[in-house]
Amino acid sequence: MSTTHPPISVFPKDYDRLISMAENVAQSDPDLAEFLSQELNRASTAKPSRKSRFVAMGSYVRFRDESAGNIQDVQLVYPNDADVAAHRISILTPVGAALIGLSEGQSIEWRNRSGKVKALTVLKVQSELEAVA
Questions:
Q1: How crowded is residue 121: how many other Cβ atoms within 10 Å of its Cβ?
Q2: Is domain 9-127 in CATH 3.40.50.1220, yes or no?
Q3: Residues 58-87: b if buried by 16+ CB within 10 A, e if exposed
Q4: pLDDT by 10s per residue, the chain, length 133
């Protein structure tokens, strides 16, 4: 597998909390913890601004599942706020960990929990504030 890892950005406040979360799930879900940690370790930190157009915690994201070809609209949230029926996906899922830090137009590949290679492309990113405005 030639895994694609585009450059990503994370807000400093999210970075610290997400590193801690990855450490906390290392025992129960080591593959996910490792993937999320790897993503965070290669991320650059960016201060929030109006020009920030990458997937952050709370962002609304439209992405294309390259494996199935379908388009999904989701909000990336912390585990306690996750609700699949409401399209709020946890950062502690393979898709959530793959989305963090990506910008519009970027794609990424990863292995899902069953070991299958998956890929997605981010089509649109809106911050929480933009979505409610």
A1: 16
A2: no
A3: bbbbebbeeeeeeeeebbbbbeeebeeeee
A4: 345 588 899 999 899 999 999 999 999 999 999 999 999 999 999 876 666 689 999 999 999 999 889 999 999 999 999 999 999 999 999 999 999 999 999 999 988 878 888 999 999 999 866 654 4
Whole-angstrom distance, CA of residue 83 vs CA of residue 21: 18
Q: What is the pTM of this model?
A: 0.88
**Nearest of 35, 104, 2, 6 to residue 63 by alpha carbon:** 104
Any idea what the Cα angle at residue 27 is, between residues 21 and 33, rounded to 5°? 45
Residue-level length of the chain: 133
